[in-house]
Specification:
This protein is an alpha+beta fold. It folds into 2 domains: about 70 residues; about 80 residues, Alpha-Beta Plaits. Helices cover about 20% and strands about 30% of the residues. It contains 3 helices and 9 strands. It has a 5-stranded antiparallel sheet. The longest helix is centred in the last third of the chain and has 13 residues. The chain starts with a strand and ends in a 17-residue tail after the last helix. The C terminus is likely disordered.
């Protein structure tokens, strides 16, 4: 595994660097504003800028580059989980006009959606794993949920509108896995 060095850049963001097998350095500056700078340079003593390259990427471009390069080990681990039949892990980003914005997470099981778990709420650069029902959700938060694809879809509808989709004559849920 490659050794990655992390340095906080006050007022800017975070710099991650590593040394390549051929002795060069590769780094990414993740700015607080959301864009990233991909930088490469030779590890030479003369301080010459001749071998330095810098490329500014938008947040979307940085995600695209990460996917093209093979994603992260975390992504690979989640991809493996996605291969479990009946399990869906998905992300819901809260917007200002969503029902859940400014409200406590609450328990979906009390509303009839049994067998769905909010794994974490990501806020900025920090994750809040296994949040309690009284955890307050804000616009910009990302909810990470796990459950059957149908239950995940129901939860996302509820987070957006405050209503659960119900088919006439069919209970919302009866038991976990049902």
């Amino acid at each position: 595994m490659v050794d990655v060095r992390r340095v906080k850049l006050p007022g800017v963001g975070v710099l991650h660097t590593f040394i390549t097998d051929d002795g060069g350095k590769c780094g990414v500056i993740t700015h607080r504003s959301g864009h990233s700078d991909l930088i490469t340079f030779a590890d030479e003593e003369d301080g010459s800028d001749a071998n330095k390259v810098s490329l500014r990427l938008s947040e979307d471009e940085a995600h695209t580059l990460a996917e093209l390069l093979g994603g992260t080990r975390v992504t690979e681990g989640i991809d493996a989980l996605d291969q479990i039949p009946g399990l869906s892990i998905d992300w819901f980003t809260v917007d200002y006009d969503h029902f859940i914005a400014g409200r406590q997470l609450g328990s979906l099981s009390s509303r009839g959606v049994v067998g769905l778990t909010v794994v974490a709420v990501v806020r900025g650069e920090s994750a809040n794993p296994a949040p309690a029902d009284d955890f307050k959700v804000f616009p910009g938060d990302t909810l990470v949920v796990a459950g059957s694809p149908e239950k995940v879809a129901k939860a996302f509808t509820f987070y957006r509108t405050g209503e659960l989709p119900v088919r006439p004559g069919v209970p919302v849920d009866s038991t976990p896995g049902g």
